[in-house]
Structures are given as structure tokens and as C-alpha cells.
Amino acid sequence: MAVGSGEIKTLFPVKGLSIGVTCAGIKYPNRQDLVVMELPADSLVAGVFTQNAFCAAPVQICKQHLNSGKSIRYLLINTGNANAGTGQQGYKDAMASCQKIADSKGVAVESVLPFSTGVIGEHLPMDRLLAGIPQAFDNLTDNGWLNAANGIMTTDTRPKAVSQQFEFQGKTITVTGISKGAGMIKPNMATMLGFVATDAKVNAEVLQSILDQAVNQSFNRITIDGDTSTNDSCILMATGQVETDSCDGVESDLYIPLKQTIDDVMLKLAQAIVRDGEGATKFVTVQVDKAGNTDEALQVAYAIAHSPLVKTALTASDANWGRILAAVGYSGVKDLDVNQVELYLGDVCIARNGGRSEEYQEAQGAAVMAGEEILIRVVLNRGEVSDRVYTTDLSYDYIKINAEYRT
Amino acid sequence: MAVGSGEIKTLFPVKGLSIGVTCAGIKYPNRQDLVVMELPADSLVAGVFTQNAFCAAPVQICKQHLNSGKSIRYLLINTGNANAGTGQQGYKDAMASCQKIADSKGVAVESVLPFSTGVIGEHLPMDRLLAGIPQAFDNLTDNGWLNAANGIMTTDTRPKAVSQQFEFQGKTITVTGISKGAGMIKPNMATMLGFVATDAKVNAEVLQSILDQAVNQSFNRITIDGDTSTNDSCILMATGQVETDSCDGVESDLYIPLKQTIDDVMLKLAQAIVRDGEGATKFVTVQVDKAGNTDEALQVAYAIAHSPLVKTALTASDANWGRILAAVGYSGVKDLDVNQVELYLGDVCIARNGGRSEEYQEAQGAAVMAGEEILIRVVLNRGEVSDRVYTTDLSYDYIKINAEYRT
After folding, report:
1. Are A315 and B85 inside 8 Å of each other by CB?
2. Hey, which of A128, A179, A270, B1 has its CA 20 to 30 A from A161?
3. Residue B239 CB neighbours (<10 A)
4. pTM metric for this prediction
5. Which of A84, A230, A399 sits opposite B399 (nearest CB)?
6. Is A244 in the active site?
7. In angstroms, what CA-CA distances link B185 with A325, B133, B221, B305, B376?
8. pLDDT in tens, B276-332
9. What is the torsion angle, in degrees rounded to the nearest 10, for the CA atoms of residue A347, residue A350, residue A354 and residue A356?
10. Vertex B210: Cα angle to B205 and B213 (nearest 5)
11. What ipTM goes with this model?
């Protein structure tokens, strides 16, 4: 199950970046499961990673390589095995994969970033993985985004990819990205995997800042099951191949259109993960208005988004607002005056003054809940801050998928 | 579904306390749904209540009446309707129920404590509730505990009651209690409803202290779905009808046996709630050893106990230890060195040194997971503190129950 059509529109190539995908048989035969990305020299790469203390070996290596000062030229991504909880051997395996590319391409090992997703706690099948690398390079193409989106899926039911363009100084600048993830999703810095690239000219500091801000409003605002993965990684690449003035700070004319386009692509990629959440039948925006600060807005939003009782009510299309109020009540907001809290489903006011709204009719709530895309809005009346998170319902299929699949 | 037989052994009456139960038709006809408890003069009553900001009207009134200084003589408990999220009308309704008893018995309204559990956000059917009160009083008996355990159930599949006795100064002292709750269970001071009584002589300060300590190791250590109810209440009553030296402090000879018996009764009542958790097929103890302090022990224990991925693996009897390690990793323990963490399922060491234990065989984990009662034990090696929480798996039936039932 998934929400919406999941249609992917034209994926514009990013100048200078090429992608190769192959079936390496990491976990299953005849499945695209190994992706390489090749960047031109002088590209810039920024990353954000999971805050899970048990972060996977490839995440540790990505951080080291990004901090090494060496230019990043290659990304290697496998699905089917997360190389997490694999101790020293896992680290050696991930380094060996990087070394294989470094040797064949004549670059430093620090110029290669490794990414893995799939089952936790099993060692990578190194023979098949290493054999797959040259095959993936044989398939390098400018138009590899859709294959790559397929090649990083795990329990995803469909690929996720977004591409947008804008004009700047008479040139067309492209931002294209892919993401994956459907369970173990409550990113704490980034989603399981997201790769976004642009051909704009931009300096390293601005690139990292744009990534941090975009992730914070997109991948860091989604939750499916509240489980923060060991492998979350989100990468923003800039090839700088479109010859315009460079974006060197917030005053650059390129800053606003580039930031807005990247924000938009990342938000759509993050929402695509929620729409394809394990067992999802609803796409739910939980918006908190008039909070005193961002922390309390998110406390309330996540309490609702993580409540199994709210999520099962959503599955049943049941406007069970009592469960939502209960979640607001235990969210931990200090000195919450429940008489000030208003609750809306879509445009319908369900509760205010500590209880059910007098004009509310059950049929109104039922009408909102019948939809696939639902807005739950809580007005705290404590300040002027708004924030929102995106989530799904909790259905039989979530249980089925996770009782049968080994993360 | 539920774990274990749920067998209830002999329920010894508590001297001086009588209980009456009736079918008032609060939500369903012909169901025991209204309970009154009558205490002799000079009884002492201590309570702990939900920390949910949207606490229900009866919880607000209980707190006021317990603080009024008036002796508590009557408890009134209904199931079928939580009287939560009901605003001013809800408060008036709960007060009117208390007043009805106060008037007929000639006591102050503050001598009556009201309790409600069931659907949130609907007003109490006051006509049926008020009509039921004299019927319940007509049924007063010393042997009402089992009927009362039945009369406070909501989605519980079976009543929960525990009774123990000990000898002190040649007299027999009894501690008997009942509890209810199967969903919306992550108590934050007390379970949804727990009522425990003793006929021991004990002063008010000691009674409250024993209750606080017992709740903290029992009802505050269980979680089914992480949803903290609006109505959690746990009450400890002492009728003082067994003539021995009074328990006036920790130095009293009565203190240790009384405290141990109450601790034990409360722990069994709390565990009974978990064993009857909505859709439960497993009873899981999550124990964290060698933590630096209680907070981090509980952070880790609750991260595991709340993880939908761990809970669905339990449903599938799948020793998916990677999900457990991932939960440890995101639990938020500061500066966690994952290489120091050890993970055990029962007696089997599954992981150490940041990865799978070398001697571990899948068949060993599978054997542990096949059982109904499972111990997940994490050794942090950061200090000397141990703590534990009790929880269940997350099954299809949890979804079924909560997609179909209005909390």
C-alpha cells in the first residue's frame, strides 16, 4: 500500500554527474542493488548523517572521508545489507569497497563515499559486491537517476525521485534527487538515504548550510514508526558545471532560487518516503500553531505522530479526537493550559476549551478522515511559532511487513 | 489474546472494606460497569495520578478531595466512559455523582472519590449512572473484589486481581488489589486504574510513601503502546482494622513486611496489565544493567519497549537483534560507547563489541523468542544501576482492537 500515485516526472540530468546501476545479487538475484555515482573534479559534496550511536560502518567512513579535505569523486551505494552492527569486519568491508574504486580510478580512498541499506547485523557479501562494482561502472550514464532510485530501495514499494529546474543568468540550473526508506523512519539528521545533486556553482560553506536547512524542514520532519535508523544519510552534491556567477553567500543572486529549489526537492523526497511508508494508507500532516517555541511545537507534533492509538484511528478513518488530545496532554509541554488548546481536523474545529467543540458534528470529522491526505492541526495559543511533521497511519500491513522482513 | 493463564487465586477480604457492583448500562447493557467501595471511618487513602495535562475530570476531583483533609469514605468507579475531554460539563457530572453518594450517606462530598475509564470525549450518561449508584450499594459485600475487577474492565480480556497475606504480632494482615488497562498504557505516575487495600494500621505519611515507591517499580515500569492515559489513577487504602502496633515509619516492625507485600501485589497487578495488553502474545521484560544512572537505564529500556520494529519482531518470534541495537543507539544516552554494549536474549549473548557475538548461533536466539515470556537484557557497562520495564509485542490484534474500539 502507499498513498497517492507516486508518479515520477521527468528527471533532468545534472551536468557532470553520471550514474551506473547493476544487479550484484547482494541479497536477491536479478535486482538492481548496486549504484555508483561519478562526480567531476572540483565538485563539492555536503552530508548529514544519523545520530544513532550504533551508526553503521559506511556512515563512520563517510564522515571521515568528508572531513579529510579530499575532493569526493565517487559514491557507492548498496541495498540488501546495511553493514550495521557488524563491528570491525564491517568497517574493513566498507573500506575495501572504497579501495576497489580508488585503485581502479586512480583516486585516494578518501574520495569515495560508501552507503549501505538493508538488513542489520549481517556481513556484506564482499565477493558479489566487489564483482558488481566494475559492472556498475560499465553502465555509467547521465540518465541514471530512475535506475538509481530503484537500486536503493528496500521495503519501498516504489522509487522516489524529484527533479526541478530554474533559470539563472540565462542558464538552466538543475536540482535532481532520489530517496529511499519506508520503515525505521524517524530521521535524526537525515532520512535513511537521500541523494540530491545540482549543477549550480556554489561554495562548500553555502552548500552545507543549504543542506542543513533543507534537511531540517524535510527529512527531519518525517516519522513513520519513530525508529531512527543506523544508516540515515543525506548527501547534497554540486558539480558546478553550469557557468554562472557562483553562490558564495546569502547575498548572491543565486542563493534564493537555489535554496528554494533544493528545499522543495528535499521536501518532496521526504514526503515521498512517508507516502510510501510501510503499510501506509494515509499521508498525515501534523501541524502545531501558536506554540511558544519550536521545541514544544515538535514535542506536540511528534507525540501525535508517534501515538499508536492515533495511528490506528487513522487506519480506521475514525475521527477519534480524544486520542489526539491525550497525546497533546502527555507530550510533555510544561504548564500546558488545556483550556487554551484548539484541535482541527482539516478545517473542522473538533475541540476547544478543554473539550469537544460545541458546534462539532461527527459527520464533519468523518468526512475529513475519509480522505487519503489528512491535516491534524493543534493550536496551542502560547506564542507565534508554527511547525509540522509528516507521518502515516499504523495498519495491518505495517505489522505484516515488519513481522516478515528482517531490517 | 493474552499471555499466560491469568488465573486469579483466592481474594482475601480486607477487613472493614466492602464493595458493591452493578450493571448500570453506562455503555453496554448487562455488563458490570459500576463499582462502589465503602471504607470505615478513620481509613487512610493515598493516591497517585496521571501526569497527562488533559487529565480527566474525575482525576482533578480526586486530587482536590484527597487534599481537602476530609476522611475518604467512598470510591465510585465506572467503566464505559472516561469522562475525559469533556470540559466544564464533565467536571459538573463527576461532582454530581459524588454529591449523590454524599447526600445519601450523610458525608461531605470531599469524602467521595470518583474514577472513570472508557471512551474519551463523550459525556457521562448521568441518568443511568445516578440510577446505578443505589443498586451498587444494595450489593455491598466483603467478597466483592472479583466482581469489582470485572466491573472496571474496558478492552481487558480478563479481570486482574492479586491478594496476599502475612502474619504480624499474631494477626493476619491482608493486601488485596485489582487493576485494569490493556491499551493507552504508558503510565506516568500510575496505571489506568489500580485499587489496592490493606487492613493494616499505618499512618498517612507512610501509606503515601509506600504507594509512591511501589508504583514507581510496578505501574510506572510498564508500557504497552507508549500512550499515557488521561485517567491513570492508583489508590492505596488502609482500613486499619487489624489491631497491631501501627506502622508509623521505616523503623516500625510492620514496615518491611507491609511494604514488601504491597510492592509484590502492585508488581503482579502491573504485570497482569501487560500480560493482557491489547493483542499481546508475549510478556517481555526489558532489563538494563550496569547503567550510569536510573534515567539512562530507563531511556534504553523504553526505547526498546516502544520500538514498533522490536515489537513486530517479537510478534514474529524473530530474534532480530539489529533492531534492538538500533533502539539502544537512538535512545539518547549521551556519549554511548557502542563497543561496550552487550545484548542478551534470555541467557544467550547475542551481541558485544559493537556487533554480533562470535559464538552466537541463530538457533539459540530463535529458541528464546519461541517462548511466551522473554527477557531482553542490555548491559551498558557504564555504572552499577539496573532497572527494567515490562512490555508486550505489537500484533495484528493490537491494530484490530484499536482500529475498531473508541478509546
Report:
1. no
2. A128
3. 22
4. 0.80
5. A399
6. no
7. 15, 28, 10, 12, 20
8. 888 889 999 999 999 999 999 999 999 999 888 899 889 888 888 888 988 998 888
9. 150
10. 125
11. 0.72
